[in-house]
Structures
1.
Amino acid sequence: HDHPNNQYLFVLTAVGLIGLGAFLFLLYLLYKSQIGAFRYILLCIFIILIFANYFWIPEALLAFWLIVSINNKPLKDDYLKKKNHIIIVFIILLIFTASEIYNFTSLHPKTWAKETNTRYDYGFWYAEKNTDGKTYRWTKTKSGVYIYLKDGISQNFKILCGAPLGHLPDKKQVVKIYWRGKLYDEVVFVKNREFVFQIRDDKFSDGFLEFRIDPIFNLKKMNLSPETRNLGVQVFEGK
């Protein structure tokens, strides 16, 4: 859902117009290096790339280079052996590297997520509302959300255990809470209840708050409900 189904647009969105120009120039050189039927094979591949981004798949990219290597001929004008062309390539690489380093912070997902007030998470099911109208999300086995602390304290988070504990192997559910990759707290549910907490950190002002649930449950497989999702715990954010 986040990659265009067009290899040329994929390159354009990744490295810009200069990068797309370099990519097209590379394809042109590869095309010129082939003879006979292999030129038409490459041409077909280039057309297919208008409708797919196969170079995103390592196996497809490897197959492409194998095809190119089978029947290529030396270029009459070897660009990379000319001193001025080596300098040009080096300058282009230097510009790209400097640009990536300079723009990393502004392009990082957590930055634009904060600026646009967009949720930045993984491993959660879609948002739902309980009978009180409060929004929550079920977790999967592993879930995480990027949060920002104010004066070293996060907003309130509430974990609600809604599992049929009597049907679980040990009749309990364990939730491990991680902050910035380190274990922050552990909650053992032996009955259906809620657990409210905040993240307190004077050193870091943002990071991933993550949940690891053991075990998750599937109500349909337990013959308790038509619900087919694999569920962990309910997570409420805010007041």
Note: The mean pLDDT is 89.
2.
Amino acid sequence: MIGVNYSQAGSDVRASLQRSAEGIERTLERLSTGRRINRASDDPAGLVAAVGFKADLTTTQKKMDGLVRENQLFGARDGGLAALGELTIRLRGIVVTAANRDGLSPEELDGLQAEAIGLLQTIDTLSQTQRFNGFQILRGYSTGSLGLRDGGFDLMNGDIGTIQEQVDAANETIGRDRAAIGAAVLGNESQIRVLQEEEIQLTGALSDIVDVDIAAEVSELVRNQVLQAAASQLAIAELQQRETALLLLEGVSRP
């Protein structure tokens, strides 16, 4: 039996075939998943950076979510205060009308008083019942908190000037608080825009690390396929050469 030693060229061909096959498999995996890093061994340093970017991105998104929810709450409260403002404006109109007591009959004054009490009760009802996502959005806006008290709201015998001052003060409080809400919303919106830009930058940086470059991967796939085909042809040629050499050697060794 004549032994045959594999040539260095043959070893190189087999190594090239192995590298090409691994490269093709890796490229096909990346193209199918859309990810450049599918396991830690693909890029350990890149994976560490990606984890950091993901953490920062999550934090940024949570901050934005919190600001959006806060603005929604502000919007609901502003809507509730707008409704209260309409009620206090109507209340002021009643007080102004009642100020001309000499020109009104007792029945008309009594009707104005009843209408005013009804508005005050509506204000209290809204302050106690209006909610948004479980929050009592008009807490602190009862008639007592606003300085409007049923017991002192006597349009027939009370001091109309004092009553009007109370109504004006309540309306001013509501307007001032709505303005504060508007400023807070604008501040939150400014922060949201900054965070949105940060989100874009973080998303782009993360994508650069983990997402596959399709054009580059397709090019790499074609390159490895060409190398594999060339290595296969070399392997076939080498096998044919060995077979020929064996045949020649067997012929020489025969008696």
Note: The chain has five helices and two strands.
